[in-house]
Amino acid sequence: MTIAAIEKAGGKIRTAYYDLESLRAAVDPQKWFKDGNPIPGRKRPPHSLISYYADPNNRGYLADDSDITESEQRLAEILEYERKVD
Asked: In which element (H, E) is residue 73 found?
């Protein structure tokens, strides 16, 4: 499980939605700015994806931080590893 591997190593993960324009800017920001483009605002995810990004088990960016912390702890207990906490 990718989330567990990242968290077990002491990392943090958040899943976030990027619309096509925002993704293009994020993938190659130097080209984006050289072309004279302003930083695009990220759009909301489509309605069908809101629940995914609001789910702390997916580490979604719309989930409450305290719910994500609880989900991190539960996963560590299930897979029997110790979380590295800052």
From this structure: helix 65-78
- The residue behind tokens 């591997």 is 5
Point out the residues of the chain with pLDDT beneath 50. none
Tokens 């993960």 locate to: 13
Position 86 scores a pLDDT of: 64
Q: Domain locations in the chain? A: 2-78
- CB atoms near residue 83 (< 10 Å): 13
Report the C-alpha gap between 77 and 39 in whole angstroms. 41
Strand partners, 15: 60
Structure tokens at 41: 């605002």
**Separation of alpha carbons 24 and 10, rounded Å:** 29
